[in-house]
Amino acid sequence: MNDIQILRKLAAEYFEASQSEANDKRRVLHRAVNDLKMIRPVVLIEEIPFHELNVDGSLTLQCEDETFRGVEDFLRKKLFHWKHFPGDMILTPYFPVYKGYTSTGIGVSVHEETLATDANNGIVAHEYEDQLATEEDVAKLHTPVLSYDEEGTIARFNKIANAIGDVLPVKIVGHNSYITMWDQISSLRGVTPLLIDLAERPEFSHKIIEKFTEIEISISEQMEKLGLYEANPIDIHSTSALNSALPGKLDGGPVKRSQIWGRGMAQIFASVSKSMHEEFDIDYMKKVMEPFGLVYYGCCEPLDRKIDIVEKLPHLRKIGVTPWADVDAATEIIGKKYVVANKPNPASVASGVLDEDALRKEIGRTIAACKRNGCSCDIVLKDISSASYRLENLVRWEQIAMELVNNW
């Protein structure tokens, strides 16, 4: 088969799955969670190490054209996911062509050394060289200028649509928000100098985060004006995004921030005090998040003892509850006010043979805590650095999680 024949076969399989009753039912479950009217917890598996899972060759790319290989990769991974460990995943009834854009940059860039233990794994260890060590370094920071590559986007759309559009609709789509100021700063500085300066040079640290706040506000304003945001995403950073409040009425113009989710986090603040977390992130994040319709905050940083400061964010709807958080304490405070975005420990699938008893205990504790406190919840296995090259670990994880939530 040639490239187009390969893609058309995969596209037909994908479209059939996207039209299934299961896909429709899952949309109802997703929306109920984010509307704080949960039917049962939603289970998702994301950030998957596909390079470890190609047991039958179905993930092996066969196309030669670079653009078509990207389409093929998307379709093969989605179909593999759907077949082996779907949980409550949703498939869009179209192939997405993301709007391309460029940025002039913020004045500094990451300098690093990396170390890999698996040459096939894109997740590696990083040692960063501090690029923001002095006042002079910070002065280099500036807001970038974004430009929408409409010509390139339309060219990609036409090429893909001509190949598969009569089998699977092709749609130009925008992007989600993703505000990670301290993640960016940690990549530009390294963890140690960043944390030391929070304590020893607080005014200097404030100057850095003030600059990044200006940068992120400018980026989000430009994204809005250029029409680069997506009105109807099915997910927001690996969790369900569907809800009844957004996007509201669309007028055909650029999607506004008030019509989409704002996504924020400060993962490097896992080890700082609540007062410091509020002073150096929440107080600034409030300014960035104000224009957005709904807000999802928190990633790998435990927030169970910081819910009261997170609640100060405008339009808050969803809070991340990491494996390192006390789920009982977090859900007691969150209650019916916000969605619990629970992240079970991905080490469970990375440690050789899956410990099923431990997994049942972990997810069972989350479900019991949410039921006890009336929480709406999605349960998302993500940050999966490895599944020990054992597809069965992910298959069994999904089966157990679905068994538990279906007994809700």
From TrEMBL:
Source domain of life: Bacteria
InterPro entries in the record: UROD/MetE-like_sf
Protein name from the UniProt record: Uroporphyrinogen decarboxylase (URO-D) domain-containing protein
